[in-house]
């Protein structure tokens, strides 16, 4: 399935494909070597994923890669807490990217994230959970911490364009409506729509 790929690059490409299958997303900013490897062999990679029934997306405009499993088989079932976190980060990304060029990445801080929780009357996560959520997003190439202490209010995060695919088809109004729904049902069992929208393993 990898016809046309040299013997030298074939092992590298197989390793890169396995990595993408595991995490679904790749941002060039975080993994330039693998991104360029996929771009060089996009036809062979397209055939490979096609044989598996997956869709391979090479988004050169936003410089990211996405592997989409058939019929959403590999969607991650998020907890309510994770769902809220993903929606909050996606909303911040959407709000900030409108004033930036494609070559720039939206930036946010722990303080801004906490303030967004407060806007929707949602309790912020504790320190342990914050570390876990940041690591989850980092694993899937959704953000990059720019400071060491994630728990510091001034800790900065760079948000990548992979958010466009992690939480898809949302405008600011719809994101706000979903978060308001969580706020209104806080303590009484919130709905969870994220199972079908976040495509991570």
Q: In words, what does this structure look like?
A:
The protein folds into 2 domains: 10-72; 80-186, Arc Repressor Mutant, subunit A (Orthogonal Bundle). Helix 4 (80-97) packs antiparallel against helix 8 (172-185). Mean pLDDT is 87; it is low at 188-197. It has helices at residues 10-23, 32-40, 42-52, 80-97, 110-119, 127-139, 163-166, 172-185; strands spanning 25-27, 55-59, 64-68, 107-109, 143-145, 156-159. Helices cover 46% and strands 11% of the residues. It is mainly alpha-helical and 201 residues long.
Describe this protein with a few key phrases.
mainly alpha; Arc Repressor Mutant, subunit A; 3-stranded antiparallel beta sheet; elongated
């Amino acid at each position: 399935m990898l016809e046309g790929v040299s013997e030298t690059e074939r092992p590298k490409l197989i390793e890169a494909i396995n990595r993408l299958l595991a995490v679904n997303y790749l941002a060039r900013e975080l993994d330039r070597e693998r991104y360029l490897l996929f771009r060089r062999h996009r036809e062979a990679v397209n055939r490979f994923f096609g044989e598996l029934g997956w869709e391979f997306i090479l988004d050169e405009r936003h410089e990211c890669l996405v592997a989409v499993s058939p019929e959403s088989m590999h969607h991650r079932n998020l907890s309510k807490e994770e769902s809220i976190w993903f929606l909050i980060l996606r909303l911040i990304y959407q709000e900030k990217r409108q004033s930036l060029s494609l070559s720039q990445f939206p930036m946010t801080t722990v303080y801004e994230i906490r303030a967004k929780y407060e806007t929707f009357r949602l309790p912020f996560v504790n320190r342990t959970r914050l570390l876990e959520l940041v690591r989850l997003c980092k694993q899937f190439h959704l953000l990059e911490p720019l400071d060491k202490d994630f728990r510091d209010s001034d800790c900065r995060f760079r948000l990548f364009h992979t958010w466009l695919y992690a939480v898809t088809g949302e405008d600011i109004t719809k994101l706000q409506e979903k978060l308001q729904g969580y706020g209104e049902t806080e303590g009484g069992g919130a709905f969870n729509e994220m199972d079908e929208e976040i495509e991570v393993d």
